[in-house]
Recover the amino acids of this structure.
């Protein structure tokens, strides 16, 4: 069974002062915290072996989620001090993840994406990591990121063409991170573009509900929509 890593170490600077009192993943929308929505959807999709990385007030995340029993999951934690960014966070947590490909999602997105569909992608990456080392879920460009990140051509992620936005949902093979020392500060992009340029990343476009919460206005807007 593949593991899933929930990235929850971000400071949430643009959400201050809300994130002065609690970590961003514990902000509430629709009566639940952002990270609880993610945990519940992952479990529903068959990902029950979870790892959560944390930094800013991370002990509050541990206290809120516990060992995962109430969600039907097992949750372990990868503390960081200071936060190591996305790829750095993955590397530090690798020893906690089950062998083989794993799912990585951000704790600050809200989505109806069906995580169960990614089990087939995990199997594809596991079968031939030399030709397919990752799978990215891309979304239509939100207003605040109109230029997008990368495109799709025949199910393969490319750097050119009409661009979409990285949806903060991906499957990775651990070999991608070979040679990076735990504790290294490293962003996922542009580092991961090398694998895209080698043609080793498949992808899909998701057009359903997807919100990336970066500001208090976005948080309030999503809360209103969910309460309806």
């Amino acid at each position: 069974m593949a593991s899933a890593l929930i990235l929850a170490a971000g400071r949430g600077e643009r959400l201050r002062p809300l994130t002065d009192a609690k970590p961003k993943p514990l902000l509430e929308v629709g009566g639940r915290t952002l990270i609880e929505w993610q945990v519940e959807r992952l479990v529903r999709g068959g990902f029950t072996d979870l790892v959560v990385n944390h930094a800013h007030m991370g002990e509050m995340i541990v206290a809120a989620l516990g060992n995962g029993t109430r969600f039907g999951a097992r949750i372990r934690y990868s503390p960081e001090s200071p936060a190591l960014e996305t790829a750095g966070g993955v590397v530090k947590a690798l020893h906690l993840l089950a062998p083989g490909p794993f799912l990585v999602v951000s704790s600050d997105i809200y989505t109806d994406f069906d995580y169960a569909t990614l089990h087939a992608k995990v199997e594809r990456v596991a079968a031939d990591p030399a030709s397919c080392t990752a799978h990215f879920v891309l979304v239509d460009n939100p207003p605040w990121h109109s230029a997008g990140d990368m495109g799709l051509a025949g199910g393969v992620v490319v750097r050119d063409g009409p661009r979409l936005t990285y949806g903060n949902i991906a499957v990775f093979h651990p070999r991608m991170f070979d040679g990076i020392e735990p504790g290294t500060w490293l962003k996922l992009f542009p580092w991961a573009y090398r694998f895209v340029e080698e043609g080793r990343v498949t992808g899909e476009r998701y057009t359903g509900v997807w919100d990336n919460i970066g500001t208090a206005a976005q948080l309030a807007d999503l809360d209103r929509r969910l309460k309806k």
User: Anything to note?
Assistant: The mean pLDDT is 94. The helical segments are 18-21, 34-44, 58-65, 85-93, 119-127, 193-197, 216-227. The longest helix spans residues 216-227. The chain is about 25% helix and 25% strand.
